[in-house]
Amino acid sequence: MFEHTARAAGLAAGYLADLCWADPQRGHPVAAFGTAAAALEKHTYADRRSAGVVHTAVLLGALGVLGVAAERAAARRGPAWTFAITAASTWAVLGGTSLARTGAQMADRLGGDDLVRARALLPSLCGRDPAALDADGLARAALESVAENTSDAQVAPILWGAVAGVPGLLVYRGANTLDAMIGHHSPRYERFGWAAARFDDAVNYLGARATGLCVVAVSGAPAEAWRAWRRDAGKHPSPNAGVAEASFAGALGVQLGGPTQYAHRLEMRPTLGDGPAPQARDLRRAVRLSRAVQALATVAAVSVASRIGRRASPRSSGA
User: Are the beta carbons of 20 and 91 closer than 8 angstroms?
Assistant: First the structure.
């Protein structure tokens, strides 16, 4: 039985490892990928979409090949190795615990009126210009980031791990990292980052909606979360972030959106949810909600992986 559930057990173990140790301060595999991507960009960059397609395909293709090779090598050695490589990969790609801890730190700094340290912390959560934000703006930016990254850092990757194993985990995290590096609107990356941004949208589509369903299930305010999701998510410029942010806004009874200042531009975002602007206490509630959503998504992913393993078992034994 264990050989049919090694992937599921590895996902659970990787989640628990992230809970215990979160992201390392140095030598994180995701940081190593980012360094490699930046080095490759020196050779592939051109202000064209086609150059960005090549850049993205080379990097994510390499991660896919690495994941397939690692999983096949582990399978030849036995289920214990499959468990180990899945657990290690899951821990490496998940960022839910670091997200929650950073969100809680931001809430503490805002609650103590320490805006200098709150502004210094904001770049750990999102790419907005902290100098342009007051206490309410910092709280809103942090809460929106916690909502969006609950999907990006936890729900989507662990679901990809359930259905596609180690290759799914690695390619997903690579896509998400590339999107953060080059998939934004700026003079340099408007065209070169197009492929990375569109691929990230595709791989996050189901994860974002799973996040919304988890929010509805665990928030204690299912009707409000569902109503805000259905009414407001489509207004957001991102097809995926809007789902997470709107469902969080509805569940917490706050209003998100409005003027959003980035380093290169000001966006006028539509409002999501009903209620007052979020404050530090709402950010603390968002962190608790994020942790609950992460836990439920992990349970769902482990269940999916177990069911896939059971269905694959008869075919494998009859081959």
Answer: no
